[in-house]
Design brief:
- GO terms for molecular function: heme binding; iron ion binding; monooxygenase activity; oxidoreductase activity, acting on paired donors, with incorporation or reduction of molecular oxygen.
- The protein has a domain at 17-200 and 298-344.
- The chain has 13 helices and 5 strands.
- It has helices spanning 17-32, 41-58, 62-65, 70-92, 103-113, 129-151, 157-172, 177-185, 196-206, 227-231, 248-259, 269-278, 298-314; strands at 38-40, 212-216, 222-226, 318-319, 341-344.
- Helix 7 (157-172) packs antiparallel against helix 8 (177-185).
- It is globular, with a radius of gyration of 20 Å.
């Protein structure tokens, strides 16, 4: 993560330019494929999310990897779908799929991440899935649902879209860390009066990457934490827990400040996070490698970048009416939302 956003001993400022460029490149690649006139939304999200994840996880060389290889494209599409299918099969099948038997996926992974001995999918210690699962697998489902919520026409959807796009444009220019954070979380930096951070929080509230966390303590006691139930409780969403409404996060902060007799601007980010956790908001758990130290906010910013770039390419020139009839909230099951297709309304790409 540190390398992906340009962090090293001589530089402690997050640099998202490369991540944004890669996301834009892979989005254009997918939409340009064979003069695509119809795009399967789930496959689109899987492709861009998986390719970006593999890119920064395995530090693959641009010249060798991004060569327009059609087989590489097919392997990424196949791997993205197959990983989800295997996960579903492992939950519903009487016999759990055996990893050693997944020869086609093994070969696809070798083609995508490289065939070096230290990336052998058949060895537990070198299997690329050890790194892919915690990144791509938990991310693409959040991005898909967030993209649908931001894209489908509603009263404030254009504001949410603009908030993401302005943040991406700012981060792509290499602004310093303070400017980037202000653009990400400050509602007063744009005319929409909504921050990208608030939209991402609402996506994670309704569609947490992990719905339930299971732990077993010493002595055999098993504990289950229902993240989905916590996020949809009256503590975070008193009137409308099932509705996607990013504006609620500023209202929550205002209510916490009123209780403590503070002004909103006096409340630190640490205090905000403490209150959110106290109310049950913990989309990545209480401790997550992508949300601490100098990579703080990595997970949320990746979500914002993916949704913002994908949204910017789909909001014009594509028929979005398919999204209007979807349920509120969107279903969380893995086998849902896999067959939504958008159709191009003009000849432009990107």
């Amino acid at each position: 993560m540190r390398i992906a956003i340009g962090l090293h001993d001589q530089n402690q400022t997050q640099d998202w330019k490369r991540m944004i460029k890669w996301t834009r490149d892979y989005t254009t690649e997918k939409l340009s494929c064979d003069g695509l006139e119809t795009v399967n939304l789930a496959e689109f999200v899987q492709f861009v999310t998986l390719k970006l994840s593999v890119k920064y996880l395995f530090k693959l060389d641009d010249n060798e990897w991004d060569s327009g290889n059609s087989q590489l494209h097919q392997d990424i599409v196949f791997a993205g779908k197959e990983i989800n299918q295997l996960w579903m099969d492992s939950k519903v099948s009487a016999v759990c799929p055996i990893w050693a038997d997944q020869h086609d996926l093994h070969q696809a992974l070798r083609n995508v991440v490289g065939n070096e001995i230290n990336k052998d999918p058949c060895k537990p210690t070198t299997n690329p899935m050890n790194e892919i699962l915690p990144t791509y697998e938990t991310m693409w489902r959040v991005v898909l649902r967030g993209l649908i919520e931001v894209l489908r026409p509603t009263k404030n959807s254009s504001n949410w879209q603009e908030a993401f796009i302005r943040f991406i444009d700012s981060a792509a220019q290499g602004r310093d860390r303070a400017d980037q954070m202000n653009m990400f979380r400050d509602v007063n930096n744009n005319d929409t009066q909504i921050s990208p951070l608030d939209v991402v929080k609402e996506i994670l509230r309704l569609y947490p990457p992990t719905r339930r966390i299971y732990r077993q303590h010493e002595g055999g006691t098993k504990v289950q934490v229902d993240i989905e139930a916590l996020h949809r409780s009256i503590l975070l969403a008193p009137q409308d827990p099932q509705i996607f409404r990013p504006e609620r996060w500023q209202t929550l902060i205002e209510s916490w400040c009123l209780k403590d007799q503070k002004e909103v601007k006096q409340m630190t980010q640490k205090e905000v996070k403490h209150m959110e956790e106290k109310c049950g908001f913990m989309p990545f758990g209480l401790i997550c490698p992508s949300n601490g130290g100098d990579v703080k906010g990595f997970g949320m910013k990746i979500i914002a970048i993916l949704i913002g770039v994908l949204c910017n390419n789909l909001r014009d020139g594509w028929d979005l009416t398919t999204l209007e009839g979807l349920s509120e909230p969107l279903p969380l099951e893995r086998n849902e939302l896999l067959n939504i297709s958008l159709h191009r309304t003009n000849g432009s790409i990107g």
